[in-house]
């Protein structure tokens, strides 16, 4: 099982729970739909910084930044990153509030192979925004036997 992170109103990311292992059998479109709910994810507002060519999939740096004023009336409520081919689709899910200041996160992830990644942001008005990137990995990580 993979742990996921929650960011609570201006505090650091903390381990918060466990992702259901059955989620790994869903395809990328299914997990995106589950996160977005009734909203149709639109392109824009989400910046996804990751190298398109990764030499080693063991520690791939990523940064996700969402264009949002982060006010009580208009803010990001959640950011998620999903992958296409890792054993589990969920990379990270963070919850935010207006006091977070900026809707931005940086971390390192493991990639099993070359694949598509999708970053999503759910807004306080119910809209959902996304950015996707195809990443080529030359030395794979997190392969399950």
Estimate the strand proportion: over 45%
The radius of gyration is 15 Å
Stretches with pLDDT under 50, minimum 5 residues: 1-23
What is the CATH topology descriptor?
Immunoglobulin-like
Q: Mean of the pLDDT scores? A: 83
* Structural class label: mainly beta
CATH architecture verdict: Sandwich
Q: Any idea what the CATH superfamily is called?
A: SoxY domain
What is the CATH first-level class name?
Answer: Mainly Beta
As for the number of domains, it is 1
Separation, N- and C-terminal Cα atoms: 15 Å
Give the helix proportion (percent range). Answer: under 10%
Can you tell me about this structure?
The chain has 145 residues and is mainly β. It has a single domain, classed as SoxY domain (Immunoglobulin-like, Sandwich), CATH 2.60.40.2470. 6% of the residues lie in helices and 46% in strands. The strands form 3 sheets. Strands 3, 5, 7, 8, 10 and 11 form a 6-stranded mixed sheet that branches. A 3-stranded antiparallel sheet has the order 4-6-9, with no helix packed on it. The protein has a two-stranded antiparallel sheet with strand order 1-2. The chain is globular.
Provide a quick synopsis of the model.
The protein is about 5% helix and about 45% strand. The N terminus is likely disordered.
List strands and helices in order, with pairings:
Blueprint lengths: L2 E4 L7 E5 L9 H9 L5 E2 L2 E4 L3 E4 L3 E7 L9 E8 L6 E6 L8 E6 L5 E9 L4 E12 L6
Parallel strand pairs: 3-11, 5-11
Antiparallel strand pairs: 1-2, 4-6, 6-9, 7-8, 7-10, 10-11
């Amino acid at each position: 099982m993979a742990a996921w992170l929650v960011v609570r109103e201006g505090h650091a990311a903390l381990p918060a729970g466990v992702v259901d292992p059955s989620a790994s059998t869903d395809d990328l479109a299914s997990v995106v739909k589950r996160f977005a709910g009734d909203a149709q994810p639109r392109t824009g507002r989400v910046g996804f910084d990751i190298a398109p060519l990764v030499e080693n999939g063991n520690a791939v740096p990523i940064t996700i930044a969402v264009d949002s004023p982060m006010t009580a009336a208009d803010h990001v409520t959640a950011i998620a990153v999903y992958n296409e081919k890792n054993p589990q689709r969920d990379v990270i899910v963070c919850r935010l509030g207006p006091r977070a200041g900026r809707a931005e996160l940086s971390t390192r992830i493991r990639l099993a192979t070359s694949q598509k990644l999708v970053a999503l942001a759910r807004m306080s008005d119910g809209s959902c925004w996304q950015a996707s990137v195809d990443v080529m990995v030359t030395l794979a990580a997190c392969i399950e036997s």
